[in-house]
Amino acid sequence: MSELNHIALNILKKGKGILAADESTGTMTKRLDAVRIVSNPENRLLFREILFSSTSMSECIGGVILYDETIKQKTSKNISVPELISSMGSYPGIKVDTGAKNLAGSPEEKITEGLDGLRERLKEYYKLGAKFTKWRGVYSISKNFPSKLSIETNAHALARYASLVQENNMVPIVEPEVLMDGEHSAKDCLLKTSEVIKKCFDQLIFHKVDLKGVILKPNMILAGNKSQEKIPGEEVAKLTLDCLKNSVPSEIPGIAFLSGGQSEVEATENLHLINKFNDTNFIMSYSYGRALQQSALKFWAKDTKNIDGTQEIFNHRAKMNTLAAQGKWSKEIEN
Ligand code: 5MM
């Protein structure tokens, strides 16, 4: 087994998932503003250190995705953040894209940037302790979107990224996120997501990326958040499995879903149902940002001294998702 395959499998073993704590400063500031906490490097670290020292880190969280600021910070115990994460039995990872910008030629769509100087930044992150990385391409659905241009260019960037990451001995998480925003049906989401993922793998293969050392981070198949259509969780699971069976090569060791704006419990329940009906060999786990952190952040903001209470809430979400990743979650356990 290659080293990268080993790391990918370890991150997602036995229901473990990934904590996406890689909010860029702009996004983290929005999150902190919403709960009336001043967004500065100290407060951003304070909240994140509470999560990273929670007991569920060893049982449930196989990897944590960090942002550039965080991977370089020292904790209150004067060790680096990657050292803290490793000491909890989890793998430190890093977001290496520099964000989604307007796509020239189709400016209502986005292209993710960050390839310039990436090789050098990867070497630095590796030295800082990163074992895996993340790059997110974003696509929106409407009458004319995602365009061929956005599908091609984002797939190309994701493949160039993944290839450079493997060259530097880290596991690339490939995240093509088809956004939930819009009036589209679940069927549209299925068609567009399948097209996007297939194109990503065409490019990954073309760029000679070792698929056994890649984690795919896709969206689930959902109806748009402005659509009248409401589909039950069983249907979300079925459509999501149909999509992945038809678009993901069997070499991929694991799939870790993003939550994409679903509520915490909805993201857990859908993951549980996907695993309940999973008739593939893929590990199906989670790489959640909002769906792991929202309640903990709200609670912490009300009483920033209450570390135990904040960790209790985070531990519960992590445990629920780890049960869901094994198809063992239920509403009774949730409550
Ligand atoms: C943690 O959120 C990430 C946001 O990155 P930016 O600050 O650069 O926008 C995001 O990429 C995240 O990792 C995924 O979208 C998954 O997060 P959710 O909240 O959708 O589970």
CATH class: Alpha Beta
Tell me the total number of β-strands. 10
- What is the count of DSSP helices, taking H or I runs of 4+ residues? 14
Instruction: Give the N-terminus to C-terminus distance in angstroms.
Output: 40 Å
CATH level 4 superfamily: Aldolase class I
* Strand fraction: 15-25%
Characterize the overall form. Answer: globular
CATH topology: TIM Barrel
Spans of 5+ residues with little confidence (pLDDT < 50)?
none
- Overall pLDDT level: 98
Please provide a written account of the structure.
With 335 residues, this protein is α/β, with parallel strands linked by helices. The chain has one domain (2-334): TIM Barrel (Alpha-Beta Barrel). The chain is 48% helix and 16% strand. The chain has 14 helices and 10 strands. The protein has helices at 3-11, 25-34, 41-52, 56-59, 68-71, 81-87, 118-127, 148-167, 186-206, 233-247, 264-276, 290-302, 307-324, 331-334, and strands at 17-20, 61-66, 91-95, 100-103, 106-112, 132-139, 171-178, 215-216, 254-257, 283-288. The protein has an 8-stranded parallel barrel with strand order 1-2-3-6-7-8-9-10, surrounded by 7 helices. A hairpin with a 2-residue loop joins strand 4 (100-103) and strand 5. The longest helix has 21 residues, at 186-206. It binds 2-O-methyl-1,6-di-O-phosphono-D-mannitol.
